[in-house]
Design goal:
The chain is an alpha+beta fold. It contains 5 helices and 8 strands, in the order βαβαββαββββαα. Helix 1 crosses helix 5 and helix 4 packs across helix 5.
Length: 204
């Protein structure tokens, strides 16, 4: 099975920067959907992070197959689960309060919903599932999580999304306060990607 590149089903530039750092030693170019010229409108109607990731990966793989391109397709679905809020926003993390709503507004809303909730009940986790579709049609899914809790304000300049409100007691810092290399090593996406990298190294 030959593949000359990896196409990752995202247009998020921050996410692509993380992904390229982690997958740099695979020896394949890593393209975003946009760079691959794919603008598929994908309906993510799965019930889990893994299902949604595979829906995205499969849709992109079909588009590439139509064009006769040999690529490994990867997709992720990730989100924030807050225990006190019945694991909201969960699989709807990107769509929480609307996709066009800024994360500053989303983060402020979540902090407000936890007003008066003590530290021990502010537990939360970032979850990430990575799905892969290989050129021969085989499919793989890896997943990982990182535990923490929701802080009382936004802190840090290095992260994106919900990173500025996600506090890591083990490190005494917010996710957005971590250096990129450190974040990639411990984050939900970093760990799920590392696991997928091991799968790809054994299968490609």
């Amino acid at each position: 099975m030959k593949a000359d590149k990896i196409v990752f089903a995202t247009g998020n530039a921050d996410k692509m920067r993380e992904i390229r750092m982690i997958l740099s030693d695979l020896g394949l170019a890593v393209w975003s959907m946009k760079e691959a010229g794919i603008t598929a409108d994908i309906v993510e109607d799965g019930k889990t992070f893994g299902e949604n990731a595979m829906i995205k990966a499969s849709a992109i793989a079909r588009e590439l197959e139509k064009r006769g391109e040999q690529a490994v397709v990867l997709a992720d679905d990730s989100g924030l689960e807050i225990d006190y809020l019945n694991k909201e926003p969960g699989i709807y993390s990107a769509r929480y309060m609307g996709e066009d709503t800024s994360y500053t507004v989303k983060n402020a809303n979540l902090i407000q919903r936890l007003d008066g909730v003590p530290d021990e009940k502010r537990t939360a986790r970032f979850v990430c599932a990575i799905a892969a579709v290989l050129p021969d049609g085989r499919q793989f899914v890896t997943s990982a999580a990182i535990e923490g809790r929701i802080g009382y304000e936004e802190r840090g300049e290095n992260g994106f999304g919900y990173d500025p409100i996600f506090y890591l007691p083990e490190y005494g810092r917010y996710s957005a306060e971590l250096a990129p290399e450190e974040k990639n090593r411990i984050s939900h996406r970093g760990k799920a990607l590392e696991e997928m990298k091991r799968v790809l190294l054994s299968e490609l």
